[in-house]
Specification:
The chain is built from 7 helices and 4 strands, in the order H-E-E-H-E-E-H-H-H-H-H. By secondary structure, the chain is mainly alpha-helical. It has one domain. The strands form 2 sheets. Strands 1-2 form a two-stranded antiparallel ribbon. Helix 4 packs antiparallel against helix 5 and helix 5 packs across helix 7. The mean pLDDT is about 95.
C-alpha cells in the first residue's frame, strides 16, 4: 500500500479554504487527484475512483467529517463500496496510507498474493491484517466469492511479470528509467514496482516522483 503525504487543505483563488455542502463533497475530487494521483488508496490500481471517507459518513464521528479534507482519500468501487463500506467507525486499529509508512507493513509476491510483514510487532500485525480484511485486499486466488477481487489478484500477477521483464531489460541496458516509469504509471500497483526494483534506487525514486503524493521517503530529495 503506497504511503502518501496529504497536502494542506485546498484553497480558493482568494486564499480561503475550499468548502462544500455535505451533498456536494465530490467537489474535492480534482484536488484529491492532484494530491494523490489517479489510483486507489488501498489496492493501488488505476480505476474509476470514488471519494473515500476514511471514517464513513454513516458513523457518528463521520457525519461531521463528510466534507473534511483530512478525512478524504480516493478508493476504487471494489475497495470502497464492496468491502470497506461503513464497517470501520474510527481510524483506530487499521493502517492508513496517509498516516504511516503503509508499504512497510506488507509483502508482495509474484503469485499476486499480499501478506502482512512477519517482522512487524504484534500490534502492527493486527492492524495490517485488519486493513487487508477491511478492504478485501488478499482473498484466496480464483475464489468464487468475489470475482472483482479475483481480478485484482490476476492484475497483480500481470504487473509483476511486466515489472520483472523491464528490470531484466534495464539491467541489460535495453530500456530506460523513463520507459519503466511510463509502464508503472499506466499499470498502477506502485508497491509491486517498488518491490521488484528493490536495490535500484534511481528507478524507485523516478517511479515515486511520478506518483503524486508519494511519501517523501521514497522520492528523490528536493
Amino acid at each position: 500500500m503506497r504511503p502518501v503525504t496529504r497536502n494542506s487543505w485546498p484553497l480558493k483563488p482568494n486564499g480561503d479554504r475550499k468548502t462544500f455542502a455535505v451533498s456536494n463533497y465530490k467537489g474535492f475530487f480534482k484536488d484529491l487527484v492532484i494530491n494523490f494521483g489517479f489510483y486507489c488508496s488501498y489496492c493501488e490500481r488505476p480505476d474509476s475512483l470514488d471519494i473515500e471517507h476514511v471514517i464513513p459518513q454513516s458513523s457518528p464521528a463521520g457525519q461531521h467529517l463528510v466534507v473534511d479534507w483530512n478525512n478524504l482519500l480516493l478508493g476504487c468501487p471494489s475497495c470502497n463500496r464492496d468491502h470497506k463500506s461503513n464497517i470501520n467507525n474510527t481510524r483506530n486499529g487499521y493502517v492508513w496510507p496517509d498516516e504511516v509508512d503503509s508499504f512497510s507493513h506488507y509483502e508482495y509476491f509474484s503469485s499476486g498474493d499480499l501478506k502482512v510483514k512477519s517482522t512487524l510487532d504484534n500490534a502492527d500485525k493486527t492492524k495490517a491484517q485488519a486493513t487487508i480484511d477491511l478492504c478485501g485486499l488478499a482473498p484466496p486466488p480464483k475464489s468464487n466469492a468475489n470475482q472483482s477481487k479475483d481480478f485484482l489478484w490476476q492484475q497483480r500477477m500481470k504487473v509483476w511479470v511486466v515489472a520483472e521483464k523491464l528490470k531484466a531489460d534495464y539491467i541489460a541496458g535495453n530500456t530506460t528509467v523513463g520507459n519503466i516509469v511510463t509502464f508503472s504509471e499506466m499499470s498502477g500497483f506502485w508497491s509491486i514496482w517498488i518491490t521488484v526494483f528493490s536495490g535500484h534506487d534511481d528507478v524507485i525514486n523516478a517511479i515515486s516522483d511520478a506518483y503524486n503524493g508519494t511519501k517523501s521517503d521514497y522520492c528523490t530529495p528536493p
